Amino acid sequence: MVESVAVPKDLLRELHEELIGIEEVLATLEELMDKEGLRRIRRAEEEYKSGKIYLVTLDHHEFFPF
Question: Is 64:13 a contact under the CB 8 Å cutoff?
Answer without folding.
Answer: yes
